[in-house]
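Table 4 source record.
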Amino acid sequence: YAMKRIAFLIFSCDDDEFLGQLDPLLKKMIEVFKQRQKDNNKGDIKQRLFLFFLTRVMLIRLNFQTLTEQLRKLWPHLLNELISVFEVKLDS
């Protein structure tokens, strides 16, 4: 539930106030995305929800230029996770 707390802190801050901590945060998010891919997207559904929630909060709190630069790192992993969500729904 750490991602939920981090998302709350980021949302409570002013725009771009957490830029100094953005790189380690993105590295950790990418690490979690990669781990979920290795596990074939099985695992805790709450973890997936909190990853999406944290991403959404970051989209709100980053300025356009920073968002463009940082999403280049996160986007491939986020897209893969979104595709897996829809694949599960189609298979059910």
